[in-house]
UniProtKB/TrEMBL annotation, chain A:
Top-level taxon of the source organism: Eukaryota
Domain (4Fe-4S ferredoxin-type): residue spans on this chain: 565-594
Cofactor: [4Fe-4S] cluster; FAD
Entry note: cofactor: Binds 1 [4Fe-4S] cluster.
GO CC, one annotated term: mitochondrial inner membrane
Name this polypeptide is given: Electron transfer flavoprotein-ubiquinone oxidoreductase
Keywords from the UniProt entry: Acetylation, Electron transport, FAD, Flavoprotein, Iron, Iron-sulfur, Membrane, Metal-binding, Mitochondrion, Mitochondrion inner membrane, Oxidoreductase, Phosphoprotein, Transit peptide, Transport, Ubiquinone
UniProtKB/TrEMBL annotation, chain B:
Signal peptide range: none
Location in the cell: Mitochondrion matrix
Functional note: Heterodimeric electron transfer flavoprotein that accepts electrons from several mitochondrial dehydrogenases, including acyl-CoA dehydrogenases, glutaryl-CoA and sarcosine dehydrogenase. It transfers the electrons to the main mitochondrial respiratory chain via ETF-ubiquinone oxidoreductase. Required for normal mitochondrial fatty acid oxidation and normal amino acid metabolism. ETFB binds an AMP molecule that probably has a purely structural role.
GO molecular function ontology, one term from the record: electron transfer activity
Superkingdom per UniProt: Eukaryota
Entry's Gene Ontology BP terms: amino acid catabolic process; fatty acid beta-oxidation using acyl-CoA dehydrogenase
Pfam assignment, any one: ETF
Subunit structure comment from the entry: Heterodimer composed of ETFA and ETFB. Identified in a complex that contains ETFA, ETFB and ETFRF1. Interacts with ACADM. Heterodimer of an alpha and a beta subunit.
SMART domains: ETF
Keyword tags: Electron transport, Mitochondrion, Transport
Residue stretches making up the Electron transfer flavoprotein alpha/beta-subunit N-terminal domain: 24-216
Protein name, as recorded: Electron transfer flavoprotein subunit beta
Length: 605, 253
């Protein structure tokens, strides 16, 4: 009997220490309710989970160029027809424009249509493009490549813009037109009718502690029920991800392909400043098999303002080497003898990063479903050879609004039925948005051959010459995350140490984004399985998330209990770029929206 | 206690990296993310809790600043304040607005509105002055409970626990009084969307400093604003003798 007790005690001891080892080897990281549902959580049984609900006619999720254009267009039509139409826009940033990041060299075609008197109204479109330069960088030199009319990167007639400022201005126009713009409000959950159509969106709950339990100040989000919901979340929206899955929007599309864009704003010496100059480079520091390049845009300096240059670097997220760090490629790019002199004597005043859509035509999803539609980059209208997406985003937003308004005013779209606005997709097909994308569809995929960069340039020249009329459509060859090679097949890259003058370390860069999140909330970078990072990402790919995250969110740190490492998620640093959700080779990371108002505080990025 | 007046200030958000203007006249504020001063959020929360505990009947939020100060007042209304007063101060006058002016404004409004209690944050995170509460109390000749980390009702007025260097000091004060909120007074609630929507309907009055008879001429002139000096790299010395030699060289011993 005593032996039995001792034996079972030993068993229990063994189990407990095994559990301890297991637990401490893979400490719990994810506490978010999307992974650990609250209806099964005993800490939530007493909490009233009822949500207040409001009805609106058009609900727009995301306040970027597409969302704002949709809001303005809808209200313009309402004014014209003398109709009472409620337009509600939800934006997760604390202030309009706060999460906007782009080059940006913008084609004014959409703005000219939306607000023809934008100049009188003071739109921040102050820098017309004066010249275009394009070059192939080698390790120490540069081979100029001529840019002339007809080429996609010929920018005559376009403007260099601080997109965050443009979005802020658009937000003021939207409110003046009678739309409700609610910054600091994160769209978090989707609400469906019994027939499966989209009824609306709920804003995020607030006051959940880091361990997933309710705090004293817990407050439930509120619901917006709409006749039509337009999703304009920008590249790789998290609600768009859910909606695409629910309505199978991607069943006939290739998996979307992306890039990560990192950007800095510099005050430069006047002799290095040429307002209106738009410059792009390809080649060094990337190898021929890694897609990417830089942009350098010179902004007009306003009264008493310092001369500003926007510089950035894009790396295609189909890169193969897990040792690649897009941030460090960007930093070392600035050391190139052609580039460095521009920044000498200058001061870096801003930094940020955002994923961008590169898939184009082949990757377009079905953009309509019962109760709503997708517009802007969340659907993926960026024109890669032109390196422009803002005009397409705005135009698609306008078309979405026009279609929604037609359905609402005719009585077809109501709160009871979830009508599918197929009208919108028809109009998109007839518009320049689809025409442009179809024309350039083969350029980006042509970089996937073994000839890499050179094959891509040669083919793109050909495709541009025949204006995209070649009768075939090239494939991207699969999803970006599947293209990452195991670490043992690749060579680590030697990056130079930051000099603190031209090149910088990651953490001081993140500080410049002004990003912050309430610390006591569940990490919004959720893992479907907390053990996968160490088991797969670290062991096979040497932890690529610690290298591709432009904000230092992911760190592999030694375990407190001795050997081995664990993944540490510094959720507060997140700048909402979405790269991790895209490039995680295990597809284990699911980015969900944190408490509204959190994230970067970009000023005119 | 019927009326509580809460002063709130719109400041650059605490997580944003501050940049000094090249002409050293101040910091860059254009387009930079602003929010309510964190200590003022705590002040608003305390006032709203008093109303919820039936210790007060009405909470009035006051802010001095340009048009955007109204956004800060809307946040206070969303947290539970009943009405707001926007003292419009813009342009050059706003650049030189100082605690003495704000104190005079708050004092005048307190008298006009017959407030029983004034609560402000202990200091603003931009100027770190920590003067407004004290000056307002002096102008009104009211007692003050500054750096409050706990406020309770007592028979004669209030019992205030203050955070001081040596620890905690408990004082008793009559009302009317002026309090300044310290960090541990409470944890402010969120201004959630349903409340923000309701706040749009709450009354907001706009007045000018002139209407209140307050002269905004600056008493302090800012000569220059500069970055702190860049931290110099240190050097590692191989032994104690070298250390002593370096210290002597540098004139430190």
């Amino acid at each position: 009997m005593a032996t039995a007790i001792v034996n079972s005690a030993r068993q229990v001891g063994r189990l407990t220490s095994a559990a301890k080892r297991l637990y401490s080897d893979f400490p719990k990281i994810t506490t978010h309710y999307t992974v650990h549902p609250r209806d099964k959580d005993s800490r939530w049984t007493e909490i009233n989970m009822e949500r207040m609900a409001e009805e609106t006619d058009i609900l727009i999720i995301g306040g970027g160029p597409a969302g704002m254009a949709a809001a303005i267009r809808a209200r313009q039509i309402a004014e014209e027809k003398g109709a009472e139409v409620r337009v509600t826009l939800l934006e997760k940033a604390a202030e309009a424009g706060g999460h906007i990041l782009s080059g940006a060299c913008v084609d004014p075609i959409a703005l000219n249509e939306l607000i023809p008197d934008w100049k009188e109204k003071g739109a921040p479109f102050d820098t017309p493009v004066s010249s275009d330069k394009f070059g192939l960088l080698t390790k120490s030199g540069r081979i100029p490549i001529p840019v002339f009319p007809g080429l996609p990167n010929y920018n005559h007639g376009n403007y260099v813009v601080r997109l965050g400022h443009l979005v802020r201005w658009l937000s003021e126009q939207a409110e003046a037109a009678g739309a409700e713009v609610w910054p600091g409000c994160a769209g978090a959950d989707l609400i469906y009718r019994d027939d499966g159509s989209l009824k609306g969106v709920a804003t995020g709950d607030v006051g959940i502690a880091k361990d997933g339990s309710p705090k004293d100040m817990f407050e439930r989000g509120m619901e917006f029920h709409s006749k039509i919901t337009i999703f304009t979340e920008g590249c790789h929206g998290h609600l768009t991800k859910m909606v695409s899955k629910k309505y199978n929007l991607r069943e006939n599309s290739e998996p979307q392909s992306y890039g990560i864009g990192l950007k800095e704003l510099w005050e430069v010496k006047p002799e290095n400043h040429h307002p209106g100059l738009v410059e792009h480079t390809i080649g060094w520091p990337l190898d021929k098999n890694t897609y990417g390049g830089s942009f350098i845009y010179h902004l007009q300096a306003g009264e008493g303002e310092a001369p500003l240059v926007a510089v950035g670097f894009v790396v295609g997220l189909d890169y193969q080497n897990p040792y690649l760090s897009p941030f460090r490629e960007f930093q070392r790019f600035k050391l190139h003898p052609y580039v460095k002199p521009m920044f000498e004597g200058g001061t870096r005043i801003a930094y940020g990063a955002r994923a961008l859509v590169e898939g184009g035509w082949q990757c377009l999803p079905k953009t309509v479903f019962p109760g709503g539609c997708l517009a802007g980059d969340t659907a993926g209208f960026l024109n890669v050879p032109r390196i422009k997406g803002t005009h397409n985003a705005m135009k698609s937003g306008m078309l979405a609004a026009e279609s929604a308004m037609e359905l609402i005013l005719s009585g077809e779209a109501t709160h009871e039925n979830g009508v599918t606005p197929t009208l919108y997709e028809d109009r998109l097909r007839e518009s320049y948005v689809y025409k442009e994308l179809k024309q350039v569809r083969n350029c980006r995929p042509s970089f996937h051959t073994s000839m890499g960069l050179y094959g891509g340039l040669a083919y793109s020249a050909f495709s541009t010459l025949v204006r995209g009329k070649e009768p075939w459509t090239l494939s991207h060859g699969g999803a970006d995350h599947a293209k990452l090679k195991p670490a043992k097949e690749c060579k680590p890259i030697e990056y130079p140490k930051p000099d603190g003058v031209i090149t910088f370390d990651l953490l001081s860069s993140v500080a410049l984004t002004g990003t912050n999140h309430e610390a006591d909330q569940p990490p919004h970078l959720t893992l479907q399985d907390d053990t996968v990072p160490v088991k797969n990402n670290l062991s096979v790919f040497d932890g690529p998330e610690a290298r591709f995250c432009p904000a230092g969110v992911y760190e592999y740190v030694p375990l407190e209990t001795g050997e081995g490492q664990r993944l540490q998620i510094n959720a507060q640093n997140c700048i909402h770029c979405k790269t991790c959700d895209i490039k995680d080779p295990s597809q284990n990371i699911n980015w969900v929206v944190p408490e509204g108002g959190g994230g970067p505080a970009y000023n005119g990025m | 206690m019927s009326r509580v007046l809460v002063g709130v200030k719109r400041v650059i958000d605490y997580a944003v990296k501050i940049r000094v203007k090249p002409d050293k006249s101040g910091v860059v504020t254009d387009g930079v993310k602003h929010s309510m001063n964190p200590f003022d959020e705590i002040a608003v929360e305390e006032a709203v809790r008093m109303k919820e505990k039936k210790l007060a009947k009405e909470v009035i939020a006051v802010s001095c600043g340009p048009a955007q100060a109204q956004e800060t007042l809307r946040t206070a209304l969303a947290m539970g304040a009943d009405r707001a007063i926007h003292v419009e101060v813009a342009g050059a006058e706003y650049e030189t607005l100082q605690p003495i002016h704000v104190a005079k404004i708050l004092a005048k409004i307190s008298q006009d509105e017959k407030a029983d209690l004034v609560i402000v944050g202990k200091q603003a995170i931009d100027d770190d002055s920590n003067q407004t509460a004290q000056m307002t109390a002096a102008l009104l000749d009211w007692p003050q409970g500054t750096f409050a980390s706990k406020v309770e009702k007592s028979d004669a007025g209030l019992t205030v626990t203050r955070e001081i260097d040596g620890g905690l000091e408990v004082i008793k004060t009559k009302v009317p009084a002026v309090l300044s909120a310290d960090l541990r007074l409470n944890e402010p609630r969120y201004a959630t969307l349903p409340n923000i929507m309701k706040a749009k309907k709450k009354p907001m009055k706009k007045v000018s400093a002139k209407d209140l008879g307050v002269d905004l001429a600056p008493r302090i002139k800012v000569i220059s604003v500069e970055d702190p000096p860049v931290r110099q790299a240190g050097s590692v010395v191989p032994d104690v003798d070298t250390l002593v030699a370096k210290l002597k060289e540098g004139g430190h011993v």
